[in-house]
Amino acid sequence: MPVGLFRVCLLVITAIVNHPLFFPKENGTVPENTEEIIQKMKEREESLRLEQLRLEKEIADQEAAQKALEKAAVVVEESKEEKVRWDMWTALSMVIFLLIELWRQDFQEGNWQDTGGEEDDMAVLGKAFKGVAFPSKAVLASFYEKRILGTTTDMARMREMVEGFADDLLEALRSVCNRDADMEVEDCMGVGSMYENWRVRKPFVCDLIVPFAPPEPYCFCCQTWCSGDSFPPDEQGYGTIKVCRADEDATGCICDKTKLGEDMLCLLHSQVSSSRPSSEMEDLLCFKNTQYLDANQVMKWFQIAVTKAWNRISHKYEFDLSFSLLDSPGALKIKFKSGKSIAFNLTPVVQYENSDVYFISHFPRSSLAADIPSSTHWFLTFAVYERRFIQLVSKTLPANACHVSCLQILSFLHGKQCSLTGPSGLTNYHLKTVLLHLLQARPSQDWAPENLEARLQDMLKFLEKCLHEKKLYHFFIGNGKVPAELGFPIIFQRAEPLNLFRPFVLRRDIYRKMVDTFHEMLRNMSALINEYTVHIPLAHTNGIRKEPL
């Protein structure tokens, strides 16, 4: 602004100084054309005025632009500060949200087995139970005595007969196998509902597992999904079995990974043993061109070996033996001349290290391993530890405890419902898992025989909660409260909990079928139980009121 005024004043002073009236010509005479000069002076004055106005306008525009720039700078600065504050709050909110989510997951994983002990939580559940009349204690007792109790004796006789025949069959199998080339078969073990005394539906089927090992000098190097290597989420619960020589580890000798010079030899492996032909691995039941044990090859070998063993001892028995199911290679059936038959499953397994956890090639009559990633992936079974846990807990429960009765009744109802509406994703193994959780969560005195009705309600409510959340965790995997007396491997206790309902999260059709089957079972529960219940005199039911859950 001062510079502009100075320029205007300088221009005016210059015009005045150069005016002809101030500096006349030397002759001192006044020009004759005065009017013309005055006119030019007016024009000059007008042009100077216009120039002054233009300059003032430019100065004003510059000042306005300067103010606008200053204002814009202030706005930008304020927006930056506001953005910084917003980003800080956003980041803080995200951190708080992540902390809450991590805490929630840790809380669920740390307390997933304690759900059964929460009375208030159980009371909130039960939406599917509205209007469902639960059978009284007298009706349940009559149903259990008539329909279920009598099956225990039949199971004991069948177990004894099947185990004796299986031992004889495996002994014959060892005699027909080549001890130097074939797998070495060990003694069988009984697992599942028949050996836990809760199977109720006929026909009774015994499940026997047969551990086997490779011939010398080979050994099995087992690797699980929780052993440190990365396994995809859909392979949780699985593992692989690598066939190695006894003088090498699972990762192989360094001579396989390092280029040795022509004049250098590995002291552990000769040039012949360092490169194994693929045919040798296939003879060891491995997948083609790999060292990994193939479940399909194992089952083919086992079927052929069982057939040879039966041909050797068939003359000793007055019945026939055959494979009963095409999709279950280990399913066998004994057929008597009278027309009666006995079915049992003989499944080869591989022991995990020195524990009673086993890699199983397939699950008979089960959808637990329906979507196996490949034939080199083996599912892990904890059936031996499950049986031991039930036996261990049973010693601390009151006499004639109702825990097995609850599982038998629930298994019976589920089986009857599936026979009406077709099979669903829900299996007896899921029902047993529910019982295992509640056995660990509830005090021993709660399983007294007079609490049968209450505990059966607890199992149904726990199952409803799991179906609603699509979460039913494996009892042993990730459970840090497994009794030390069982000698359970610590690696599985420290693993992430395994959700048995995870396959149903993406399979919405199967999940809907499972939920519908559960609801139908609740609605038909009274009718199914009354169908197998003897008439109870009115005197015994006086004072007993059927209340909905």
User: Roughly how much helix do the residues carry, as a percent range?
Assistant: 40-55%
CATH top level of the domain at 125-247 and 279-532 is Alpha Beta
Second-tier CATH architecture of the domain at 125-247 and 279-532: 2-Layer Sandwich
Task: Indicate the mean pLDDT.
Answer: 79
| Count of DSSP-assigned helices | 17
Which runs of at least 5 residues are low in confidence (pLDDT < 50)?
25-31, 108-125, 256-260, 268-278, 535-549
Instruction: Please report the total strand number as a whole number.
Output: 10
End-to-end Cα distance, whole Å, is 90 Å
What fraction of the residues are assigned to beta strands by DSSP?
A: 5-15%
Q: Rg from C-alpha positions?
A: 44 Å
- What sequence of helices (H) and strands (E) makes up the elements? HHHHHEEHEEEHHHEEEEEHHHHHHHH
Class by alpha and beta content: alpha+beta
Oligomeric state, counting identical vs distinct chains: single chain
Biggest sheet features: 10 strands, mixed
Pfam families: Mab-21_C
Protein name: Inositol 1,4,5-trisphosphate receptor-interacting protein
Family: Belongs to the ITPRIP family.
GO molecular function, one term: protein kinase inhibitor activity
Give a quick set of tags describing it.
Beta Polymerase, domain 2, disordered C terminus, 10 strands, single chain, alpha+beta, 49% helix
